[in-house]
Amino acid sequence: MEPPELGLCSASSLLALSQLLSPPEEEDEDGARAIGVSSAGPGNIGPPKAAAPTASTQVKYGNSKEIWSAEDVPEDSEYSDDALDSREQPEYEILFKQHVSAEDMFLGMSRKDASTACCEDMLIKIKLPDTKASDITLDIREKVLDLRSPEKKLLLHLPHPVDTKSGKASFLSEKGTLEVTLRMKRELDFINFA
Question: Which residues make Cβ contacts (< 8 Å) with residue 111, sequence separation at least 6?
Answer without folding.
Answer: 118, 192, 194
